[in-house]
Amino acid sequence: MDKLTLYIGNKNYSSWSFRPWIAMEAAGIPFEEVLTPFDFEAGNPRFKEFSPTGRVPALHHGDVRVWESLSIIEYVAELYPEAGLWPKDRAKRAAARSVSMEMLSGFRAIRNACPMNIRRPKGKIALVDGVMADVLRIETIFRELREQSGGPFLFGSFSAADAMFAPVVNRFDVYDLVTSGDTLSYMAAVKAHPAWRKWEEAARAEPWIVPHDEV
Ligand SMILES: N[C@@H](CCC(=O)N[C@@H](CS)C(=O)NCC(=O)O)C(=O)O
Fold first, then answer.
1. Cα-based distances in Å from 187 to 89, 98, 195
2. Structure confidence by residue, pLDDT tens digits, 113-160
3. Assuming Cys at both sites, which of 35, 56, 79, 157 could form a disulfide with 9, CB separation 3.0 to 4.6 Å?
4. pLDDT tens string 39-50
5. Can you tell me the distance from the alpha carbon of 140 to that of 162, in angstroms, rounded to the nearest whole number?
6. Is there a common fold for 4-83 and 90-198?
7. CATH number, domain 4-83
8. 14 near 61, Cβ under 8 Å?
9. Which residues' Cβ are closer than 6 Å to ligand 1?
10. How many alpha carbons fall within 13 Å on the CB side of residue 86?
11. Closest CA to ligand 1's atom 12
């Protein structure tokens, strides 16, 4: 099989890169990563060399080009069905895709106000309208799915849905947004996953500062 190459941005800040990366890493799917640091001042011109949208992430597989975080996860889930990226049960798989789409297409308030920032020291910020509504909906998703599955992850074992919400776990943590024991226990499980730890260690070692993501 041709090798998979995942093009990503800075590990400290690139929430969309983090999603397919942690999905593939946690599932044990072999891939090569190519990290191109953000250059927002210049409009990130290098991203256009490997991504049709000029955004990260993008996946190359032989002649195949895949972009958009969730499409990349779907592509590798098809390539490696035995990796179990989505739940086996159709109804659960539908729920996993539904919450993943909620993440992809929504939660703009929290995404805009609270950029992912892995190494940010924990501390509250003044919250704009809509952030707490997003937090409450996401906490409901976490609580209901873990009640149904028994945890520790949303569908029992780590799945594509956990990957889609991984950057939210960082946001909840570093902006000190949640207090519920349920949510904190889910966050602890995600942060203890070896794939999270590997990404976090690399993010902490990065030299780049992106001022507009430092809230
Ligand atoms: N919906 C896209 C979002 C991709 C995206 O916005 N990526 C950001 C980095 S996390 C980016 O490349 N920004 C660079 C730019 O807009 O110039 C996905 O899910 O992959």
1. 24, 20, 14
2. 999 999 999 999 999 999 999 999 999 999 999 999 999 999 999 999
3. 56
4. 999 999 999 999
5. 14
6. no
7. 3.40.30.10
8. no
9. 9, 14-17, 44, 47, 54-57, 68-69, 104
10. 23
11. 55
Q: What is the pLDDT of residue 148?
A: 98
Sign of CA dihedral 105, 163, 109, 149: positive
- For the stretch 179-208, pLDDT in tens is 999 999 999 999 999 999 999 999 999 999
What integer pLDDT is reported at residue 1 of this predicted model? 84
CA 56 to ligand 1 center in whole angstroms? 5
- Specify the CATH class of 90-198 in words: mainly alpha
> Rounded distance, CA 188 to CA 206, Å?
23
* Extents of the domains making up the chain: 4-83, 90-198
> Which of 55, 65, 100 to mutate for ligand 1's pocket (most ligand atoms within 8 Å of CB)?
55
